[in-house]
């Protein structure tokens, strides 16, 4: 899970990778403004996403769900269990962005299949007029992670229904020839230019950055949602640091 905080219209978050409702609820009460439930790199499926959505629901933190791919069937299932904000990975061009939007909309605006009687999202048809309200409740964020996507950013931003664009620094740096080094000056220049361009288009720029100085720099440039931590990283590094502190005292 990505973890984050908000300041005015900017939001910081953390990523949930552990795939457990228990840890999701723990983090939902920690003060982050949004939590990303990751289905791209973490061992999540529709059932574990549902469990985490239920765990987060009583808390102020807003859930964002990332499917493994820009797949309309997977998106439909995630929407039916209650996801309303999706982060679609590896969007390369305007056509793929339009496909992502269409997958979140009921016809005639899109291609989302109608199964509201079975869906938690509609509270099993207990929400009056859900089918006519649902489209307006969706938030679609797309992730740009390559030089190709960067070159197509202007046309992606022109797609109606795209609410924000999230920059993936790890994949972007790899695609630019600097794998494992997202802080390379060329990568940073591309990121900063993209943030400014996204904000100027009236869309929300976002990024994952655990480096505090860089995260603050992106917020200053206009980023509106910044993931500042990952649950598995917090647990792993915290456990290692605790063990090392006590191991260092043993003579």
UniProtKB/TrEMBL annotation:
Does Lyase appear among the keywords? Answer: yes
Of the GO CC terms on this record, one is: cytoplasm
Q: Which key words tag this protein in UniProt?
A: Lyase, Metal-binding
In Gene Ontology terms, what is one molecular function of this protein? aldehyde-lyase activity
Which GO terms of type biological process are on file? phenylacetate catabolic process
InterPro entries assigned = Aldolase/citrate-lyase_domain, HpaI, HpcH-HpaI_aldolase, Pyrv/PenolPyrv_kinase-like_dom, Pyrv_kinase-like_dom_sf
Q: Where is the HpcH/HpaI aldolase/citrate lyase domain?
A: 23-236
Family statement: Belongs to the HpcH/HpaI aldolase family.
Protein name from the UniProt record: 2,4-dihydroxyhept-2-ene-1,7-dioic acid aldolase
Name the source organism.
Salmonella enterica subsp. enterica serovar Adelaide str. A4-669
């Amino acid at each position: 899970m990505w973890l984050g905080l908000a300041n005015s219209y900017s939001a910081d978050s953390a990523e949930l990778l552990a795939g457990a409702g228990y840890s999701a609820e723990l983090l939902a009460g920690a003060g982050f403004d949004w939590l990303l439930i990751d289905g791209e790199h973490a061992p999540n499926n529709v059932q574990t996403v549902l469990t985490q959505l239920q765990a987060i629901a009583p808390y102020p933190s807003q859930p964002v769900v990332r499917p493994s791919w820009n797949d309309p069937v997977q998106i439909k299932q995630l929407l039916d269990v209650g996801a309303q904000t999706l982060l679609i990975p590896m969007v390369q061009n305007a056509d793929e962005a339009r496909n992502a939007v269409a997958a979140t909309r009921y016809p005639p605006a899109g291609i989302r299949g109608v199964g509201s009687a079975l869906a938690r999202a509609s509270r099993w048809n207990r929400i009056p007029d859900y089918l006519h309200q649902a489209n307006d409740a969706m938030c679609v964020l797309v992730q740009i992670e390559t030089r190709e996507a960067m070159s197509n950013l202007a046309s992606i931003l022109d797609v109606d229904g795209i609410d924000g664009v999230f920059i993936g620094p790890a994949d972007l740096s790899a695609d630019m020839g600097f794998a494992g080094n997202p802080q390379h000056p060329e990568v940073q220049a591309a990121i900063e230019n993209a943030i400014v361009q996204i904000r100027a288009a009236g869309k929300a720029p976002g990024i994952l950055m655990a480096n505090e100085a860089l995260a603050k720099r992106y917020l200053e440039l206009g980023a509106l949602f910044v993931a500042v931590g990952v649950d598995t990283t917090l647990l792993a590094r915290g456990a290692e640091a605790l063990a090392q502190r006590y191991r260092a005292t043993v003579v």
